[in-house]
Design goal:
It is globular, with a radius of gyration of 21 Å. The chain has about 400 residues and is an alpha/beta fold. It is built from 15 helices and 13 strands. Helix 8 links the parallel strand 5 and strand 6. The strands form three sheets. Strands 2-8-7-6-5-3-4 form a seven-stranded mixed β-sheet, sandwiched between helices. The chain has a four-stranded antiparallel β-sheet with strand order 9-10-13-12. It has a two-stranded parallel ribbon with strand order 1-11. The structure holds pyridoxal-5'-phosphate (PLP). Pyridoxal-5'-phosphate (PLP) binds next to helix 5. Pyridoxal-5'-phosphate binds next to helix 5.
Length: about 400
């Protein structure tokens, strides 16, 4: 037997995500489990985008492309940044990758040496700490609180940087997975100023940019001061807003020397993102048949429903999400008061899976074990039934 690398062995599946694997196995067996763990839209890719992908295949657009992506796509991405964010990028400042996951890892690999620290605010998207590890950096967690709507407290950020001389970057996910939080302009300026003073790269993951609700406005931090643009790499992609998770396309935009370095790494790892997806994404970004806004509106209705219904349940609290398609619920009361000797969030989620037949993700997967995460990327009927089961499941614990 060959000994696996330390890197590979560090990637052990976590007990938290094991709950989700079990849920998937139940669903595959036909057991009626309502899955609140889904990280992707339940909608189909819009027709005009699919048509562009099919046309690309029929036109034999099936060969290697330049590593960072075809020029018309990078131009379309620049137009998106101009129109949506008021940001001027050149195509040479854009790197198209096989998914935003890959975009993040290539950027981290381009900037991290052993010992370099990357600040990851907690609760965090599950992949960030592992991505930092893969890139050879070290994760430095920055706790956020429910009272602050799970947003970074600038004073805490300052303190953490002062105590840690090797901080290289900050992961800033806005709108946030898992909390749904969105930062205001002022909040972003405070964070940007701290990063600027300390020469810290902001990796601004804005993949949920278009999924915002109740009139909330998403601001791209890079657009708020010219100096911020020089210390920011924006991560975005088409998986979420365009219902294109399986197509695999993400992109990064930032200072050319970082994008060039990430592109060289990508050139030896994946080469270009698949050619048909690139063509489909040009259509996604440049055309519009109204379906993107329709999906957003449907998510907003579901968010309203989930927020209202979850708040009717005794002894839980939720912070109102403004973006993405997740909602966090504080279940600490039930962890401390239950007749089943349930001690932690993983055990609670296992109990709810076995007894209430709902799959929710334990908060420890995101760095906070008092919470559980619901995704509302699911039909209204399922949400209605699932929340009922959740309420009954919790009630049975008292
Ligand atoms: C915050 C965040 N960033 C990035 C990604 C990765 O998206 P992609 O499908 O483009 O790799 C996800 C997917 O769940 C996400 O939630």
């Amino acid at each position: 037997m060959i000994k696996l690398s330390n890197k590979a062995r560090a990637m052990k599946p976590s007990p938290t995500l094991a709950v989700m694997s079990k849920a998937k196995a139940y669903i595959a067996k036909g057991i009626d489990v309502i899955n609140f763990g889904v990280g992707e839209p339940d909608f189909n890719t819009p027709e005009y985008i699919k048509d562009a992908g099919i046309k690309a295949i029929k036109d034999n657009f099936t060969r290697y492309t330049p590593t960072p992506g075809i020029v018309p796509l990078r131009e379309a991405i620049c137009k998106k940044f101009k129109d949506d964010n008021g940001l001027d990028y050149e195509p040479s400042q854009i790197l198209v990758s096989p998914g935003a996951k890959a975009s993040i890892v290539f950027i981290l690999m381009a900037i991290c040496d052993a010992g370099d620290q990357v600040i990851v605010p907690s609760p965090y998207w599950v992949s960030y700490p592992d991505q930092v590890d893969i890139a050879g950096g070290r994760t430095l967690l920055l706790e956020t609180t429910e009272e602050d709507n799970f947003k970074i407290d600038p004073n805490e950020l300052k303190k953490l940087i002062a105590d840690n001389p090797n901080v290289k970057a900050l992961m800033l996910n806005n709108p946030n997975n898992p909390t749904g939080a969105i930062y205001s302009k002022d909040e972003l300026i405070k964070i940007g100023d701290i990063c600027l003073e300390n020469n810290i790269l902001i990796i601004a993951d804005e993949i949920y940019e278009k999924l915002v609700y109740d009139g909330a406005i998403h601001y791209a931090i890079a657009a708020l001061k010219p100096e911020f643009k020089d210390i920011t790499v924006i991560i975005n992609g088409v998986s979420k807003a365009y219902a294109m998770t399986g197509w695999r396309l993400g992109y990064s935009a930032g200072p050319k020397y970082i994008i060039d370095a990430a592109s060289s790494l990508q050139g030896h790892i994946t080469s270009n993102t698949n050619s048909m997806t690139q063509k489909a994404t040009v259509a996604a970004l440049l055309q519009d048949d109204g379906s993107i806004e329709k999906m957003r509106q449907e998510f907003e209705l579901r968010k309203d429903f989930m927020y209202a219904e979850l708040n009717k349940i005794d002894h839980v609290s939720t912070t109102a999400p403004q973006g993405a398609f997740y909602i966090m619920v504080n279940v600490d009361y039930y962890l401390k008061n239950n007749i089943k000797s349930i001690k932690n969030d993983v055990e609670l989620c296992s109990f709810l899976l076995e007894e209430a037949k709902i799959a929710i993700v334990p908060g420890s997967a995101f760095g906070n074990d008092k919470l559980v995460r619901f995704s509302y990327a699911n039909s209204m009927d399922n949400l209605r039934e699932g929340v009922k089961r959740f309420a009954q499941g919790l009630k049975s614990l008292l």
